[in-house]
Amino acid sequence: MPRKKLTNPEDILSKPIIIRVNEAVFKRLQVLQKESDCSSVGEVARKILSREKINCFYRDISLNAPMEEMALIRKELKSIGININQQTKYFHTSQSEAERAFYTNRTAKLYQTIDEKVEQLLTLIFQLAEKWLQKSQAVKASVES
């Protein structure tokens, strides 16, 4: 499948520039490429030469634990939801009132566990929001001064 033609001929990269850099400079360019939205070291060099903005993305390692816990809670909520769907199916296919009462009680217990998980989730979100607001205010204060 051929590449799409660019609508603006000025965007075509047609003039090659060949440069050599030492190992330290190349490693710095690689680090910048990994942290940014650039797909290659050449793209990083082009943006630097043309003085374009390079968007860098950084991960806050202190958020790893809460994010893992939130992912675990999400997984547990998903499995509880599957169990509730199964209980509902059994409830609708059951013939006697005793069976229906049994499945109703089991489903009610599952909903109680959902309440506990949602409370954990809301506590985590509240802590993350406080941390986020502290960082935002610190950045705002440093920009203003």
Helices and strands in order, then pairings?
Blueprint: H1 23-35, H2 41-49, H3 64-93, H4 97-144
- Cα-atom Rg, whole angstroms? 27 Å
The pLDDT mean sits at 85
CATH architecture of the largest domain: Up-down Bundle
Question: Which range does the strand content fall in?
Answer: under 5%
Helix % is 55-70%
Please tell me about this protein's structure:
- With 145 residues, the protein is mainly α.
- It has 2 domains: 15-49, no CATH class; 61-144, Methane Monooxygenase Hydroxylase, Chain G, domain 1.
- Helices cover 69% and strands 0% of the residues.
- It is elongated and about 80 Å long.
Distinctive features:
145 residues; mainly alpha; Methane Monooxygenase Hydroxylase, Chain G, domain 1; 2 domains; 4 helices; elongated
Brief overview:
The chain has helices spanning 23-35, 41-49, 64-93, 97-144. With 145 residues, it is mainly alpha-helical. The chain folds into two domains: 15-49, no CATH class; 61-144, Methane Monooxygenase Hydroxylase, Chain G, domain 1 (Up-down Bundle).
